Amino acid sequence: MRVAFFVVLLAGAIFYSYVAYADLNFLTRTGRPGPGFFPRLIGTAAIIFTLWTLVEELRKAERERTDPRKWKDVVILMALACSYAVLLKLFGGFVATVIFLGATLMLLNRAQPIKNVLVATLVPSGVYLLFDRVLNANMPPALFELPI
Amino acid sequence: MELTKTLGRRMLGAACAAAIAAPLAVATPAIAQSYPSADETLDWTIAFGPGGGNDIMARSIIEILNKYDLYDGEISAENRAGGSGAVGWGYLYGQDGNAYGISTTSGSFVTTPLQADTPWQPESFTPVALLATDDLVLVVNGDSEIDTIDEFIANAKANPTNIGGTGSVNVDFIVPTLFAEKAGFEFDYVSFNSMSEQTTALLSNALDAMVGNPGEILGLIESGDLKPLVFSGQTTPAALEGVPTMGSIGFDIGVSMPRGLILAPNAPAEAQEWWINTMKEVVQTPEWGEYISSNTLTPTVLYGEDFRQFLVNTKNGFEVVLREVGAID
Amino acid sequence: MDIFADLMMGLSVAISPINILYLLIGAIVGMIVGVIPGFGPSAGLAILLPVTFGMDPIGAIMMLAAIYYGAMYGGTITSILLNTPGESATVASTFDGFPLAKNGRAGPALVMQAAASFVGGTVGVILITILAPLFSQVSRSFGPPEYFLLAVMGMLTLLVMIGSNWKLGVISALIGFALGTVGVDLETGQGRYTFGSAELIGGIYFIPIAIGLFGLGELFYAFYNGLHKTGTGGIVQYDNEERFWPTAQDWLSTRMTMVRGSVLGFVVGVIPGAGATIASLMAYSTERSLSKNSENFGKGEMAGLVAPETANNAASSGAMIPLLTLGIPGSASTAVLLAAFIMWGLRPGPLFMEQNPEFAWGLIASMYLGNMALLAISIFAIPLFVQIIKVPYRMLAPCIVVVCALGTFSVHASFVETYLMFAAGIVGFFMRLYGFSPAALVLALVLGPLAEEALRQTMTISRGSFSIFVERTPSLWIIGVTLTLIVLLPMLNRFGKPKVDQPAKADG
Question: What does the alpha-carbon distance between residue C505 and residue B93 come to, in Å, rounded to a whole number?
Fold first, then answer.
């Protein structure tokens, strides 16, 4: 996992540098630092440092041993959070929040279904009242209105 | 083969257009009689957050419409901010043909499509009216030895000069660039993130001069900390009395930021006409005069197609200058 | 000029039942707005500005100012309890605030932050009252060369935050710098890493990254450690009655921190564009390098919470100086206040205080009252807020996700920023897990663009010559202070170290 994270970082650094070298000028026409000046420095340094740590990581004789059970809940929560992000775009702030809270609480807090339903409806209502009615702040608008 | 294909497509297109146009032709008289219908809520998009220039303008107009009972139905103003206006105007662009979608424009209306791949262009919308323009004043530090625009130009021809402004794909950059071209001097443009950073830079003598909206620096001009040299609009506002305009010294640049009103693309002609007539009343009210003077705008009024032409000219002018310096490709 | 008479006149304007009511409403609304992650003072002000359209200007400005510094008080509460900064200026408060709460000292941490905010805010207003003209000279002497040097000085604090594994710390900072280059290049107008998206024209905003890295990252990390199965998100349960008040030791050990934080915060706040975020980060790292317990920073050191808190409140007062004396807003929040001034037909500028003494001094006087009111409100509200951590974590965690997401969205109504927040949350989790430094990333994201823009502006102005940095007096001052800090601080630390190592170990 650790190695994978470094590889992802390295890929990001390479992509960042590629754009910096391909699209952005190092100097302006008058010979002063241009839009690509700092991106090229940052990108190059990032590649060097991630490569360095990656090599060190690979050389380590012993591999980290992770407990898959530790990962299970984090991955589930991350997946739920990501689907919440998608739901926000589709159904708007209120409905998405009800669905997300309902689903997540049902998974995490199976013992108290009634409490879960209450939280999943009261929290979004409270947030809606506070944001939309009291503060007149932006709530994510729905792409599709649900018939409720 | 290729030819017949295109031809076929064209004919199909024409047939479709006719099919769509037919029901529209029947529908329009109904709108003419009843626009604006009291049952329809006017959906007013403000493409920026609360408190900004665009927001204040939209809310000022709505206040006048309400006060003089110029609009029968309900008006719902929504701030749809994001992407330098791309979100809000994109929302209005999506309401093709709707008579009840409206929005106010500002500088980003011209510059955002030049910078990003927006599906819309300034001329895509149904123009109602240009109501005012944001113009700039060129100022130097109050301690400066330069007192007039002629001295400034003479000095800039002899010595390297820099001028500060806010942003780069922006009227702040275009105005001094065009002015310098006409007046025949060269300068280095220094772009800042905000008016406040550029003003302190000028006060600290790091800059030789800067351009800015007069409204934001009137206090400093009044106290003598900044010296106004020339104004980019057609007429000098009262607060800057005695300052020449670029036109009056023979270097008219013909560019300014449009503050106007637009409807969704292809809005019914009746709706456009109704709004043009209504705005003619709005600009006569004392409240509108107050808005213009407290925000130090230049009242420049153009209606309908003239406004569209103005937008096209402004956009083309910007594009030429920005392409020249390589800001856009 | 008789300052005292002016202030009394201001007080007489400010103290009317209706104005006090506006002040209290503003303070409470400000606190609520500050508590919601994402909503900073500037967002809160902008949203509530239309409400004041029809009000009397003095009452309205009192309410708006109260929202402004009320948000500064409220912003820390979630930093301490949930590791989620309410706004950018309270990121530094998470570094030691959250560990304090984890150690079972949530009550004392919240009381101390309210006290620190009060001290910072009040010292700030006192400095405005007596030294406004002097400090207005400071805010008008900053050009691009000085901003560049200031950013470099701020970057020294990166060294402090880089953490135990320096290579990972450097990578963290590089990620921050890289994110900072996204957006339309200020100088040339060329898009950098925007890929045609209109939402990225303005660059990557600091708030979604900070909320994601700290708030969501911490939450995922707590799940990784199975805290949702045990109860309370790693925060030790504590008894509200017994351990609510800070100990005498807390007060004594932080009294000089408050003084330093207030002065540093105020001075940084006076500089337009630098602001409360940089002030709080600088105060944190200064305090850490001065402290005899520097190894305890990040693990729940009271001084590490007090320093950024006094600094960000003092800075928010300091930002009033350029606004009142020059008509130049020093921060996003004061820019909204400036818009309000103009709307009421006032003309901010150097003559503003002379021409509108009632208004200006009424505002200043109301800031004294507001800070007192907020201290009282905070102390009363703390027991309520502390209830949050008594909610079982498995129920609280999904609600935190909701508040982070909706709070982020509300700032610019941007889905892109909301997605960025979620992405930053996942990255933040891995950064924590593998020993990176989210703090270094955030600091680099703030300082990187400032340094780059200022350097390139400077190079344009000086036509490529570096001598401009030694030709300007303010630049020389900053270079002097920076060198003093670099040379002097390690020496001071070396003197202090051997004596202190023993008790620190015994404590742990």
Answer: 66
Helix (H, G, I), strand (E, B) or coil at B79: strand
**Pairing assessment for the beta strands B137-141 and B209-212 based on DSSP bridges:** antiparallel
Domain that holds residue C389: 2-496
Residue C508, domain member (yes or no): no
Q: Could you give the CA distance from residue C413 to residue B30 in angstroms, rounded to a whole number?
A: 37
> B81 and A138 in contact by Cβ < 8 A?
yes
Mean pLDDT estimate for chain C: 83
Instruction: Give the H/E segment covering residue B263.
Output: strand B257-263
Phi, psi of B65, deg, nearest 5: -60, -45
Cα B239 to Cα B216: distance, rounded to the nearest angstrom: 12
Reported confidence tier of residue B41, pLDDT bands at 50, 70, 90: confident
Question: Across the interface, which of C167, C177, C448 has its CB nearest the CB of A53?
Answer: C167
Using the Cα atoms of residue C287, residue C290, residue C293 and residue C299 in order, give the sign of their dihedral: positive
- C-alpha pair distances (Å), B93 with each of B86, B120, B123, B169, C7: 10, 7, 11, 23, 53
- Of B22-26, B243-247, C161-165, C229-233, the one with minimum mean pLDDT is B22-26
From chain B residues 86-145, the ones with a CB under 8 A of any chain C CB are 86-87, 90, 112, 115-118
Q: Is residue C504 in a domain?
A: no
Domain membership of residue C502 (yes or no) is no
Q: What are A79-109's pLDDT values in tens digits?
A: 999 999 999 998 888 999 999 999 999 988 8
Does the structure show a pLDDT above 80 at C166? yes
pLDDT single digits (tens) C209-263: 989 999 899 889 888 888 777 766 556 555 555 577 888 888 888 888 999 999 9
Closest CA to A136 of B44, B197, B79: B79
Letter string b/e over residues A107-125, b meaning 16 or more CB atoms within 10 A of that residue's CB: ebbeeeeeebeebbeebbe
Nearest C-alpha of chain A: how many angstroms from B298? 32
| B112, C71, C152, C188, C197 from B118: Cα distances, Å | 8, 36, 37, 20, 8
- Provide the percentage of residues in chain C whose pLDDT is more than 70: 92
* Matching CATH number, B13-20+39-133+257-324, of 3.20.20.70, 3.30.450.20, 3.40.190.150, 4.10.520.10: 3.40.190.150
Q: How far apart are CA C95 and CA C299, in angstroms?
A: 8
Per-chain mean pLDDT for chain A: 86
Residue type, C186: L
C59 near C99, Cβ under 8 Å?
no
Rounded to an integer, the average pLDDT of B250-269 is: 88
Query: What is d(CA B70, CA B62) in angstroms, rounded to the nearest whole number?
Result: 10
Q: What is the pTM of this model?
A: 0.83
Query: Who's near B226: CB < 8 A, 6+ residues apart?
Result: B139, B140, B141, B142, B199, B202, B203, B217, B220
pLDDT at position A79, please? 94
Count how many domains chain C has: 1
Q: Does C197 touch chain A (CB under 8 A)?
A: no
Residue C192: CB atoms within 10 A of its CB come to: 21
Q: According to the model, what pLDDT value does residue A62 have?
A: 64
According to the model, what pLDDT value does residue C242 have?
A: 59
Over residues C262-309, the pLDDT tens digits come to 999 998 888 877 778 888 888 888 888 788 887 888 888 999 999 999
Structural domain boundaries of chain B? 13-20+39-133+257-324, 137-249
Residues 6+ apart with CB under 8 A from C290: C260, C489, C492, C493
CA angle B112, B117, B123 (to 5 degrees): 60
Asked if residue C256 belongs to a domain, the reply is yes
Top-level class of domain B137-249: alpha beta
Contact criterion met (CB < 8 Å) for B326 and A138: no
Which phi and psi angles does B131 have, rounded to 5°?
Answer: -105, -35
Which residues of A fall within a CB distance of 8 Å from B81?
138
